User: Which sequence fits this backbone?
Protein backbone atom coordinates (compact mmCIF):
# COMPACT_ATOMS: atom_id res chain seq x y z
CA UNK A 1 0.00 0.00 0.00
CA UNK A 2 1.15 3.52 -0.65
CA UNK A 3 1.53 5.80 2.32
CA UNK A 4 0.96 9.50 2.32
CA UNK A 5 4.20 11.32 3.20
CA UNK A 6 2.36 13.07 6.03
CA UNK A 7 2.06 9.70 7.77
CA UNK A 8 5.86 9.68 8.09
CA UNK A 9 5.39 11.99 11.04
CA UNK A 10 3.70 9.28 13.10
CA UNK A 11 4.82 5.90 11.74
CA UNK A 12 8.25 4.28 11.55
CA UNK A 13 9.68 1.17 9.92
CA UNK A 14 10.13 -1.38 12.69
CA UNK A 15 11.43 -4.29 10.64
CA UNK A 16 12.30 -5.38 7.14
CA UNK A 17 11.84 -8.95 6.03
CA UNK A 18 12.34 -10.90 2.84
CA UNK A 19 9.27 -12.24 1.09
CA UNK A 20 9.85 -14.15 -2.13
CA UNK A 21 11.97 -11.88 -4.29
CA UNK A 22 11.61 -8.58 -2.46
CA UNK A 23 11.84 -6.89 0.90
CA UNK A 24 8.78 -5.84 2.85
CA UNK A 25 8.97 -2.98 5.34
CA UNK A 26 6.57 -3.14 8.28
CA UNK A 27 5.61 0.19 9.83
CA UNK A 28 4.60 0.72 13.43
CA UNK A 29 2.72 3.65 14.92
CA UNK A 30 5.26 5.75 16.83
CA UNK A 31 2.94 8.53 17.96
CA UNK A 32 4.70 11.46 19.54
CA UNK A 33 7.56 9.46 21.05
CA UNK A 34 11.22 10.39 20.78
CA UNK A 35 14.00 7.80 20.63
CA UNK A 36 15.18 8.28 24.19
CA UNK A 37 15.69 4.65 25.23
CA UNK A 38 19.20 3.12 25.20
CA UNK A 39 18.38 1.21 21.99
CA UNK A 40 15.99 1.66 19.07
CA UNK A 41 14.62 -1.77 19.88
CA UNK A 42 13.67 -0.60 23.40
CA UNK A 43 11.51 2.12 21.85
CA UNK A 44 9.88 -0.48 19.61
CA UNK A 45 9.28 -2.80 22.56
CA UNK A 46 7.59 0.07 24.36
CA UNK A 47 5.30 0.61 21.39
CA UNK A 48 4.52 -3.11 21.32
CA UNK A 49 2.92 -2.83 24.75
CA UNK A 50 -0.07 -1.51 22.84
CA UNK A 51 -2.07 -4.27 21.12
CA UNK A 52 -2.77 -1.90 18.22
CA UNK A 53 0.87 -2.12 17.15
CA UNK A 54 0.72 -5.91 16.80
CA UNK A 55 -2.35 -5.89 14.61
CA UNK A 56 -2.21 -2.73 12.55
CA UNK A 57 0.97 -2.15 10.59
CA UNK A 58 1.42 -0.52 7.23
CA UNK A 59 3.54 -2.43 4.74
CA UNK A 60 5.59 -1.05 1.86
CA UNK A 61 8.41 -2.23 -0.35
CA UNK A 62 11.88 -0.76 0.17
CA UNK A 63 11.50 1.12 -3.11
CA UNK A 64 8.25 2.70 -1.89
CA UNK A 65 10.06 3.67 1.30
CA UNK A 66 12.73 5.36 -0.83
CA UNK A 67 10.02 7.23 -2.79
CA UNK A 68 8.48 8.48 0.44
CA UNK A 69 11.84 9.64 1.71
CA UNK A 70 12.53 11.46 -1.54
CA UNK A 71 9.27 13.41 -1.10
CA UNK A 72 9.97 14.16 2.54
CA UNK A 73 13.71 13.90 3.28
CA UNK A 74 14.81 13.29 6.85
CA UNK A 75 17.32 15.37 8.79
CA UNK A 76 20.81 15.24 7.26
CA UNK A 77 23.03 13.10 9.53
CA UNK A 78 25.24 15.19 11.84
CA UNK A 79 27.35 12.29 13.07
CA UNK A 80 27.91 8.55 12.85
CA UNK A 81 29.00 6.45 15.82
CA UNK A 82 30.88 3.18 15.40
CA UNK A 83 32.25 1.05 18.21
CA UNK A 84 33.77 -2.30 19.14
CA UNK A 85 30.84 -3.08 21.52
CA UNK A 86 30.78 -2.91 25.33
CA UNK A 87 32.87 0.22 25.33
CA UNK A 88 30.59 3.12 26.24
CA UNK A 89 28.77 3.69 22.96
CA UNK A 90 25.39 3.50 24.67
CA UNK A 91 26.56 6.25 27.02
CA UNK A 92 27.33 8.42 23.99
CA UNK A 93 23.92 7.61 22.54
CA UNK A 94 22.17 8.46 25.78
CA UNK A 95 23.93 11.80 26.17
CA UNK A 96 22.89 12.77 22.63
CA UNK A 97 19.34 11.46 23.07
CA UNK A 98 19.02 13.56 26.24
CA UNK A 99 18.92 16.76 24.17
CA UNK A 100 15.58 17.50 22.47
CA UNK A 101 17.38 18.96 19.44
CA UNK A 102 18.89 15.55 18.61
CA UNK A 103 17.31 12.53 16.95
CA UNK A 104 19.38 9.57 18.13
CA UNK A 105 18.98 6.26 16.32
CA UNK A 106 20.73 3.67 18.45
CA UNK A 107 21.41 0.43 16.56
CA UNK A 108 18.16 0.45 14.57
CA UNK A 109 17.41 -3.07 13.35
CA UNK A 110 15.94 -1.93 9.99
CA UNK A 111 19.27 -0.26 9.16
CA UNK A 112 21.14 -3.46 9.99
CA UNK A 113 18.78 -5.49 7.81
CA UNK A 114 19.29 -3.16 4.87
CA UNK A 115 23.07 -3.29 5.31
CA UNK A 116 23.12 -7.09 5.38
CA UNK A 117 20.24 -7.69 3.00
CA UNK A 118 20.26 -11.02 1.21
CA UNK A 119 17.59 -13.15 -0.35
CA UNK A 120 18.13 -16.67 -1.57
CA UNK A 121 20.92 -16.75 -4.10
CA UNK A 122 20.47 -13.14 -5.10
CA UNK A 123 22.14 -10.23 -3.38
CA UNK A 124 21.19 -6.59 -3.87
CA UNK A 125 23.76 -4.51 -5.67
CA UNK A 126 25.86 -2.05 -3.72
CA UNK A 127 24.00 0.82 -5.42
CA UNK A 128 20.64 -0.60 -4.26
CA UNK A 129 21.90 -1.05 -0.75
CA UNK A 130 23.27 2.50 -0.59
CA UNK A 131 19.94 3.89 -1.84
CA UNK A 132 18.00 1.81 0.71
CA UNK A 133 20.38 2.72 3.53
CA UNK A 134 20.00 6.45 2.83
CA UNK A 135 16.23 6.07 2.51
CA UNK A 136 15.89 4.06 5.73
CA UNK A 137 18.01 6.51 7.71
CA UNK A 138 16.05 9.38 6.18
CA UNK A 139 12.70 7.87 7.11
CA UNK A 140 13.77 6.96 10.63
CA UNK A 141 15.46 10.33 10.99
CA UNK A 142 12.44 12.49 10.14
CA UNK A 143 12.04 15.73 12.03
CA UNK A 144 9.04 14.83 14.19
CA UNK A 145 9.32 17.52 16.88
CA UNK A 146 9.95 21.24 16.54
CA UNK A 147 13.34 21.41 18.36
CA UNK A 148 14.93 18.58 16.33
CA UNK A 149 17.87 19.74 14.21
CA UNK A 150 20.49 16.99 14.33
CA UNK A 151 20.46 13.32 13.44
CA UNK A 152 22.93 10.82 14.91
CA UNK A 153 23.17 7.15 14.08
CA UNK A 154 24.91 4.65 16.32
CA UNK A 155 25.41 1.58 14.18
CA UNK A 156 25.65 -2.02 15.34
CA UNK A 157 29.28 -2.93 16.08
CA UNK A 158 29.59 -5.07 12.95
CA UNK A 159 28.36 -2.33 10.60
CA UNK A 160 31.89 -0.98 10.31
CA UNK A 161 32.79 -4.13 8.39
CA UNK A 162 30.86 -2.42 5.57
CA UNK A 163 32.54 0.94 5.97
CA UNK A 164 33.11 1.56 2.22
CA UNK A 165 29.38 1.28 1.59
CA UNK A 166 28.48 3.49 4.57
CA UNK A 167 31.03 6.09 3.54
CA UNK A 168 29.53 6.19 0.06
CA UNK A 169 26.05 6.57 1.52
CA UNK A 170 27.09 9.39 3.87
CA UNK A 171 30.21 11.02 2.43
CA UNK A 172 31.89 13.59 4.63
CA UNK A 173 29.62 13.04 7.65
CA UNK A 174 31.77 13.23 10.81
CA UNK A 175 32.21 9.87 12.49
CA UNK A 176 33.94 8.35 15.47
CA UNK A 177 35.07 4.91 16.48
CA UNK A 178 34.89 4.14 20.18
CA UNK A 179 36.97 1.31 21.61
CA UNK A 180 38.18 -0.04 24.93
CA UNK A 181 40.85 -2.30 26.35
CA UNK A 182 39.87 -5.59 24.68
CA UNK A 183 40.25 -7.54 27.93
CA UNK A 184 37.41 -5.48 29.40
CA UNK A 185 35.30 -5.84 26.25
CA UNK A 186 35.75 -9.60 26.20
CA UNK A 187 35.02 -9.88 29.94
CA UNK A 188 31.69 -8.14 29.32
CA UNK A 189 30.84 -10.50 26.46
CA UNK A 190 31.67 -13.55 28.56
CA UNK A 191 29.12 -12.41 31.11
CA UNK A 192 26.47 -11.73 28.50
CA UNK A 193 27.43 -12.42 24.92
CA UNK A 194 26.62 -9.94 22.17
CA UNK A 195 24.99 -11.38 19.03
CA UNK A 196 28.11 -10.87 16.92
CA UNK A 197 30.20 -12.96 19.33
CA UNK A 198 28.12 -16.08 18.70
CA UNK A 199 29.61 -18.16 15.86
CA UNK A 200 27.33 -18.30 12.85
CA UNK A 201 25.30 -15.15 13.52
CA UNK A 202 27.41 -12.92 11.27
CA UNK A 203 27.98 -14.16 7.74
CA UNK A 204 31.61 -15.42 7.56
CA UNK A 205 32.07 -13.43 4.34
CA UNK A 206 31.43 -10.23 6.28
CA UNK A 207 34.47 -11.08 8.39
CA UNK A 208 36.51 -11.99 5.33
CA UNK A 209 36.43 -15.68 6.23
CA UNK A 210 35.40 -18.78 4.33
CA UNK A 211 32.68 -20.94 5.95
CA UNK A 212 35.23 -23.77 6.31
CA UNK A 213 37.20 -21.72 8.84
CA UNK A 214 34.42 -21.83 11.42
CA UNK A 215 33.96 -25.48 12.45
CA UNK A 216 36.26 -26.35 15.32
CA UNK A 217 37.28 -22.77 16.05
CA UNK A 218 37.18 -22.32 19.85
CA UNK A 219 34.53 -19.86 20.98
CA UNK A 220 37.13 -17.63 22.66
CA UNK A 221 39.16 -17.43 19.49
CA UNK A 222 36.07 -16.69 17.42
CA UNK A 223 35.06 -13.80 19.68
CA UNK A 224 38.57 -12.38 19.81
CA UNK A 225 38.90 -12.52 16.04
CA UNK A 226 35.55 -10.78 15.56
CA UNK A 227 36.72 -7.97 17.86
CA UNK A 228 39.99 -7.88 15.93
CA UNK A 229 38.06 -7.56 12.64
CA UNK A 230 36.12 -4.60 14.02
CA UNK A 231 39.33 -2.85 15.13
CA UNK A 232 40.95 -3.60 11.79
CA UNK A 233 37.96 -2.16 9.94
CA UNK A 234 38.19 0.96 12.12
CA UNK A 235 41.89 1.35 11.33
CA UNK A 236 41.14 0.96 7.63
CA UNK A 237 38.41 3.60 7.81
CA UNK A 238 40.69 5.88 9.82
CA UNK A 239 43.64 5.57 7.47
CA UNK A 240 41.49 6.24 4.40
CA UNK A 241 39.34 8.97 6.00
CA UNK A 242 38.31 11.85 3.82
CA UNK A 243 36.28 13.83 6.34
CA UNK A 244 36.24 14.68 10.05
CA UNK A 245 36.74 11.59 12.24
CA UNK A 246 37.94 10.67 15.72
CA UNK A 247 39.26 7.61 17.47
CA UNK A 248 37.98 7.63 21.04
CA UNK A 249 39.14 5.39 23.87
CA UNK A 250 36.69 4.46 26.65
CA UNK A 251 38.90 6.14 29.28
CA UNK A 252 38.22 9.51 27.67
CA UNK A 253 34.57 9.19 28.70
CA UNK A 254 32.65 10.83 30.17
CA UNK A 255 34.84 13.91 30.83
CA UNK A 256 35.81 14.38 27.17
CA UNK A 257 32.29 14.13 25.78
CA UNK A 258 31.40 17.86 25.59
CA UNK A 259 34.61 18.82 23.77
CA UNK A 260 34.29 15.78 21.50
CA UNK A 261 30.79 16.82 20.43
CA UNK A 262 31.85 20.41 19.97
CA UNK A 263 35.00 19.67 17.94
CA UNK A 264 33.74 16.74 15.87
CA UNK A 265 30.04 17.44 15.44
CA UNK A 266 29.98 21.22 15.88
CA UNK A 267 27.52 20.76 18.73
CA UNK A 268 27.96 23.79 20.98
CA UNK A 269 26.18 23.06 24.25
CA UNK A 270 24.39 25.63 26.38
CA UNK A 271 24.80 25.53 30.17
CA UNK A 272 21.36 23.97 30.45
CA UNK A 273 22.17 21.32 27.85
CA UNK A 274 25.44 20.51 29.59
CA UNK A 275 23.53 19.94 32.82
CA UNK A 276 21.07 17.62 31.07
CA UNK A 277 23.94 15.72 29.45
CA UNK A 278 25.88 15.44 32.73
CA UNK A 279 22.80 13.94 34.30
CA UNK A 280 22.76 11.26 31.56
CA UNK A 281 26.50 10.67 32.05
CA UNK A 282 25.96 9.85 35.72
CA UNK A 283 23.61 6.98 34.95
CA UNK A 284 24.28 3.45 33.76
CA UNK A 285 23.59 3.91 30.03
CA UNK A 286 21.96 0.52 29.48
CA UNK A 287 19.97 0.66 32.69
CA UNK A 288 19.34 4.36 33.32
CA UNK A 289 17.75 3.85 36.74
CA UNK A 290 21.14 2.70 38.11
CA UNK A 291 24.09 5.10 38.68
CA UNK A 292 27.15 4.63 36.44
CA UNK A 293 30.08 2.70 37.90
CA UNK A 294 33.47 2.19 36.27
CA UNK A 295 33.97 -1.58 36.26
CA UNK A 296 37.32 -1.70 34.39
CA UNK A 297 39.34 -3.14 37.29
CA UNK A 298 36.74 -5.82 37.93
CA UNK A 299 36.68 -6.78 34.26
CA UNK A 300 40.48 -6.88 34.07
CA UNK A 301 40.50 -9.38 36.95
CA UNK A 302 37.62 -11.40 35.56
CA UNK A 303 39.19 -12.42 32.27
CA UNK A 304 41.57 -15.36 32.55
CA UNK A 305 42.60 -18.52 30.68
CA UNK A 306 41.96 -19.11 26.96
CA UNK A 307 39.75 -16.03 26.56
CA UNK A 308 42.51 -13.76 27.86
CA UNK A 309 45.12 -15.50 25.71
CA UNK A 310 42.91 -15.13 22.62
CA UNK A 311 42.41 -11.42 23.30
CA UNK A 312 46.13 -10.83 23.79
CA UNK A 313 46.96 -12.71 20.63
CA UNK A 314 44.29 -11.42 18.23
CA UNK A 315 43.07 -8.07 19.51
CA UNK A 316 45.88 -6.50 21.55
CA UNK A 317 48.08 -5.64 18.52
CA UNK A 318 45.17 -3.85 16.83
CA UNK A 319 44.24 -2.04 20.03
CA UNK A 320 47.86 -0.87 20.25
CA UNK A 321 47.67 0.42 16.67
CA UNK A 322 44.45 2.27 17.44
CA UNK A 323 46.03 3.83 20.50
CA UNK A 324 49.10 4.88 18.51
CA UNK A 325 46.91 6.44 15.82
CA UNK A 326 44.77 8.23 18.41
CA UNK A 327 47.81 9.67 20.19
CA UNK A 328 49.13 11.05 16.91
CA UNK A 329 46.02 13.17 16.40
CA UNK A 330 46.08 16.62 17.93
CA UNK A 331 43.57 17.81 20.49
CA UNK A 332 41.27 15.48 22.32
CA UNK A 333 42.58 12.51 24.26
CA UNK A 334 44.47 11.18 27.27
CA UNK B 1 -14.81 -15.97 6.31
CA UNK B 2 -13.84 -14.31 9.62
CA UNK B 3 -10.18 -13.86 8.61
CA UNK B 4 -11.28 -12.11 5.45
CA UNK B 5 -13.58 -9.95 7.59
CA UNK B 6 -10.72 -9.02 9.89
CA UNK B 7 -8.45 -8.23 6.92
CA UNK B 8 -11.13 -5.92 5.55
CA UNK B 9 -11.31 -4.18 8.93
CA UNK B 10 -7.52 -3.97 9.12
CA UNK B 11 -7.46 -2.21 5.73
CA UNK B 12 -10.19 0.18 6.89
CA UNK B 13 -8.26 1.05 10.06
CA UNK B 14 -5.00 1.65 8.19
CA UNK B 15 -6.81 4.04 5.88
CA UNK B 16 -8.64 5.99 8.58
CA UNK B 17 -6.61 7.94 11.16
CA UNK B 18 -9.78 8.65 13.18
CA UNK B 19 -10.43 4.93 13.57
CA UNK B 20 -6.77 4.39 14.50
CA UNK B 21 -7.16 7.07 17.16
CA UNK B 22 -9.92 5.07 18.83
CA UNK B 23 -7.77 1.94 19.03
CA UNK B 24 -4.12 2.76 19.41
CA UNK B 25 -3.94 3.98 23.00
CA UNK B 26 -5.89 1.09 24.53
CA UNK B 27 -3.41 -0.90 26.61
CA UNK B 28 -5.65 -3.54 28.21
CA UNK B 29 -5.83 -6.62 25.91
CA UNK B 30 -9.40 -7.62 26.84
CA UNK B 31 -10.73 -4.08 26.39
CA UNK B 32 -8.83 -3.78 23.10
CA UNK B 33 -10.23 -7.02 21.70
CA UNK B 34 -13.75 -6.07 22.70
CA UNK B 35 -13.34 -2.67 21.01
CA UNK B 36 -11.91 -4.20 17.80
CA UNK B 37 -14.84 -6.61 17.56
CA UNK B 38 -17.37 -3.84 18.20
CA UNK B 39 -15.85 -1.33 15.75
CA UNK B 40 -15.49 -4.09 13.16
CA UNK B 41 -19.14 -5.11 13.58
CA UNK B 42 -20.28 -1.49 13.20
CA UNK B 43 -18.57 -1.47 9.79
CA UNK B 44 -19.96 -4.79 8.62
CA UNK B 45 -16.79 -6.76 9.41
CA UNK B 46 -17.90 -9.60 11.67
CA UNK B 47 -15.30 -11.63 13.59
CA UNK B 48 -14.82 -12.77 17.19
CA UNK B 49 -12.27 -11.73 19.80
CA UNK B 50 -10.76 -15.23 19.62
CA UNK B 51 -10.17 -14.79 15.90
CA UNK B 52 -8.45 -11.47 16.51
CA UNK B 53 -6.40 -13.02 19.31
CA UNK B 54 -5.19 -15.69 16.85
CA UNK B 55 -4.00 -13.01 14.39
CA UNK B 56 -2.20 -11.27 17.27
CA UNK B 57 -0.50 -14.53 18.27
CA UNK B 58 0.64 -15.04 14.68
CA UNK B 59 2.18 -11.56 14.70
CA UNK B 60 3.98 -12.26 18.00
CA UNK B 61 5.28 -15.54 16.67
CA UNK B 62 6.63 -13.90 13.50
CA UNK B 63 8.26 -11.11 15.55
CA UNK B 64 10.17 -13.37 17.90
CA UNK B 65 11.45 -15.50 15.05
CA UNK B 66 12.78 -12.50 13.19
CA UNK B 67 16.50 -12.29 14.02
CA UNK B 68 19.09 -12.70 12.66
Assistant:
Amino acid sequence: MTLEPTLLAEWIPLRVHAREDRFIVEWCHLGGERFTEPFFDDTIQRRLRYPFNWLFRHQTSLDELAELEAKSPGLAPTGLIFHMSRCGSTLLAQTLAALPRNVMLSEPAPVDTVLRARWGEATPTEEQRIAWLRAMVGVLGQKRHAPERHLFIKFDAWALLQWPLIERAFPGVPWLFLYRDPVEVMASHLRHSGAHMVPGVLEPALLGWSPEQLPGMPREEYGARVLASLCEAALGAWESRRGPARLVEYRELPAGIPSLYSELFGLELSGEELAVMREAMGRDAKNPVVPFEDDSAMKQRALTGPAREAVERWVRPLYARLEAARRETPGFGL
Amino acid sequence: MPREAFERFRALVLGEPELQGQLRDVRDPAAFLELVVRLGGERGCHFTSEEVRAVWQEARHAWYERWP
